[in-house]
Queue: 4 jobs
Job 1
Amino acid sequence: NLLLITALFLSVCANGQNIALTAKCSRTAVDLNETFRITFTTNARRGEITPPNFEQFIVVSGPYQSSQTQIINGRVSSNRSLSYDVVAQKKGEFVLPAAFIIVDGKRIESNKLKITVKEGLKKKNNIQQQAEESFNVTILSSKKAVYVGEPIILKFRATLFDPVRNLDIIQSPN
């Protein structure tokens, strides 16, 4: 019995994992008003990832959660991720604070991310600006609130503000 208990204890100790929490960024140098993704990944099976304050950024979507479990030769490993799509509010160099997770009363922090935000693209050239000002698309919906699977009707209204000079280039939709 003592041998069985010792063997069981050693297998549990050998199966223990070093819990880690890492922060990654899709790009560390971004343009102003450019969307990029920040992902926090942990191998802990328990605990909730607490993201840092995104005070220098605007969260445009997220959090997205994903999990992965692998069993290879009886050894179980798992990863969980929490991702956010964000946009920088102003240019400069910013350090995103660490995210954290609490597992078995122990606080584990991620690495900090250094993100450089540049001015971005220069002013649009005159042709691009004219094209954007001379064309507009409006989408009208038959309903404002719908449930999953409910059919709706969308009307697309395209408006060209400049006169058309050559009618041979206009094609009917399929």
Job 2
Amino acid sequence: DVYKRQVGALVFVFLDEGSIPSTSTIYPPEGFPPSELETTMQPVSVVVCGVRGRMGQQILALLADNAKFHIVGAVEAKGHADIGLEIRPGLSVVDDLGAVLKEDDVLIEFTTPAATLDGLRCAAERKARAVVGTTGLSEAQLAEIKEIAQSIPIVLSPNMGLGVNVLFNLVEQA
């Protein structure tokens, strides 16, 4: 039950028996959450990094029409051809995660290992939560993710196929 409050409405269904893939790791920081943090009926604010990639577009499509989620940010790498493109009414692709990620938002990362670490550092600075589906993380990068997870909750599922299947499951249950 404590874990449900820790990671909020976006990721709590991962913890229902049988719904979390065996390759996933949940890193709740020690002492988190503060007692005032509870899962609410308000939509969860989500920022999708790698939004124009194959996985990012699937995640965007899954979350876009679900009233339990509010997409507040769509992020791509600096220099990407779609920077500035309005991909949904009022939602344009940006290259500055820090401009859109706020406290208590959920960051969804399906990017490169280096970009994922940058995103998680930003999430930690802003006290956001994170779901990571990036593959190819080195042992050193995984160690840094564990370190970052001392301050924010992170669900790590670095198998993109499994990660997307879990997100499909999440949306169905939401």
Job 3
Amino acid sequence: NKIWGIADDEKGNFAEIITRADKLFEQEKYEEALEAYKNANRIDPDNVHAADRVLEVHTLIKRDKNLSAEYNDLVENGDRYLEMNDFEKAKESFSEALSLKPDESYPDRKIKAINEHLEVIKNYDAAIEDADALYIEKKYDKAIVAYTNAGNIKPDEDYPGNMISRIEALFAEL
């Protein structure tokens, strides 16, 4: 009671295995799909669909591993650039990583943090430029306000406080 070399009880099992394997394949669960297709292929080695899918899934798994390795390298590079305060190169690395794996949140969070940091730097630099211009023009009261604003943007910077101290020393001499 065999049809094309497959026993009746195996035929039903084969159909279930192929259906399960196809669902796993559609869900991109390639490792599990591969095992299911291999099982189906053991039951019916002449089935073209199962054999073709085994080869296709092997290729997809290899592609995913290469993609993951490249992604990991880009993220590591981004982290290294951040440690060196090279924000533009870090942002570039994280952007490339995100383009490889758009659903990953880590590079997206890093890009947002870099953008926020770059915006702070831009605002601070503009505030210092304004304050320095007022200082050069000897508009000391306005310069103190401008340096105070710059210090509020980046509280860890010493320069605004040093310039305020310098202006206050000038006032003390007068």
Job 4
Amino acid sequence: TVGGTAAGNYSLTNSPGTLTVNRAPLTVTVQNASKTYGAALPTLSGNVTGLVNSDTVGTTITVSYSTTATASSPVTTYPITATVGGTAAGNYSLTNTPGTLTVNQAPLTVAVQNASKIYGAALPTLTGNVTGLVNSDTVGTTITVSYSTTATASSPVTTYPITATVGGTAAGNY
């Protein structure tokens, strides 16, 4: 609009301009997390910065977090990603930084049982008790345990150590 006391002295040509509203920057930074092999997935979360005009997460912006890992996933790292949506999402230019879920080893205990033998006799069967297996892992399928000693049938009278060796396809998870 043009006005003033001398406005009538002019032939007015009005060329309108354009106001461009650009997207505001929005940053989602996913928090790293960890869990023990066999445990449930933790609650995944992140930090959202840059919201303007009374936009809030849960109302005009939605953020959900996910990972490819499950409770039974083996020990390693997995990506955690954020998906951003909502009615105001189109008003933002998104920077989305993923996080990492680390699956740590579960504790496994092998309690070797004491044994004895008579001098000159064959070695007895060596055994132990295994506790802490999760995710349907079992001794004889995904876990192997072998027991050994330095003693032989002809070893002199004294004590000898009995040791357990753990192996199998799931051994790295413990």
